[in-house]
Amino acid sequence: MGQGGTWPGLAGLMAGILASAVVLRGAVPAAPKPNIVVILTDDQGRGDYGAYGTRDIRTPNIDRIFRDGMTFGNFFANSCVCSPSRAALLTGCYPDRVGVPGVIREETPVDSWGYLSPDVALLPALLKRAGCHTALIGKWHLGIASPNTPNERGFDRFHGFLGDMMDSYTTHRRHGLNLMRRDRETIDPQGHATDLFTDWACDYIGERAKVGGPFFLYLAYNAPHDPIEPPAEWLEKVRRREPGISPKRAALVALIEHLDAGIGKVLATLDRTGLATNTLVIFTSDNGGLLANGANNGPWRGGKQHVYEGGLRVPGAAMFPGRIRPGSRTERMTLTMDIFSTACALHGVTPPAHVDGVSFLPTLLGDPSPSPERDLYFVRREGGKAYGGKTIEAFRRGDWKLVQDSPFAPLELYHLGVDPLERTNLASSETKRVEQLGAGLRLQIQRAGGVPWQPRR
User: pLDDT tens across 404-413, in order?
Assistant: First the structure.
């Protein structure tokens, strides 16, 4: 935990939650239950926002969440690609334990490497039991057919895109298919996808402000995933401001800055409706940035598609006025799946026994206690000649990290305490350590072995 001790918001928030649960006749009305907004960007690199210190990018609205809330110095995606991290967020589990070790591409089944288990309860279903209205605006990417569509899996409202990526931000098709939906209705809206998702999120917040009651909004942008298509005026602004910037980098920066403007509108809507003071906002990305698109993952090795640090480390911040100390920072090891347990804790919901995620709510609210020690596991399954339908993994215990970044390559071992950039492979000199971590890795693989990752036929 960064500066200071226990933040006064901890006692106040927990008292409010308890008061909301039980209101005695004649007592003062209970404090309203808090709202939760999770903003997930797509392929945003660890260094691709202004608050990180990157000089060629301007993201004042993302930076506001870091400035007015808590920065997570060690936030990790559960995988280096899209579907697994999204499955982890919504189930609180390691993704292969819920059937999603790789990217779900149901529109092209021969190249689909996951299937979300129909037996697992998702976060929106649990929060509904606590009285929350639940909505997903934006990218789903956990299935395009029953039973794995958002409304069937617990969301009261879905307004967005079912698939993995759009062939264009303005035509919203994938392999010629229209996967845009409002709940179960196929729609064909006009405009840039980032603008659409922003407007729909603002409309939803305005609606909930009128209706009342707590809500959970999962706002999953597909930016800055490729194709890198910023609006022309945003690209021109970056080119004028950053002389000498490469065309590839300029396009990515413009797409992120356009995304940032959308996030600003969402935050402004929370402010305007008076909901901001009772809303926890969590911001992160589903995996590291794609280096081929000019992403900035900071100094860390690799990027999207790789289980080196650059593919797994992502931006992480949370803002909750009056509850989270502005400008605070934590170095606790935090994973995407921990959002699940944190949201449950905020609403007094007991997570299912099988959940792997750990709540970081005490850390958000100022508890300086260290985070629990635990092994960390990262997985990706993929097809093609480079993967052959096999998996790549990383396993971390303390500062030691075991890596197999290709299914056809030998294991690598790094001590991140002295070598955070993964430059010195110690596998040949630390054979006993390799075996110890290898045993832990094999246990994780065995735990996932009973969960199908293809549809049951």
Answer: 999 999 999 9
Instruction: Give every CB contact of residue 131 below 8 A, 6+ residues apart in sequence.
Output: 33, 213, 214, 347
14 to each of 10, 11, 21, 348, 362, how far by Cα in Å?
6, 5, 11, 9, 10
The CATH number of the domain holding residue 214 is 3.40.720.10
Q: What is the pTM of this model?
A: 0.94
In a domain, residue 431? The reply is yes
Which residue, 364, 399, 424, sits at the end of a domain? 364
- Tokens 């194709």, located at residue: 227
Give the integer Cα–Cα distance in Å for 217 and 336. 16
Question: At residue 242, what are phi and psi to the nearest 5 degrees?
Answer: -120, 75
Q: 446 burial class (0-12, 13-18, 19+ CB within 10 angstroms)?
A: exposed
| C-alpha span between 380 and 382 (Å, rounded) | 7
Angle at 124 between CA 214 and CA 289, to 5 degrees: 105
Residue 370, number of CB atoms within 10 A of its CB: 10
Count of domains observed in the chain:
2
User: What would the pLDDT profile of 70-102 be if each residue is shown by its tens digit?
Assistant: 999 999 999 999 999 999 999 999 999 999 999
Per-residue tokens: 37: 């907004």
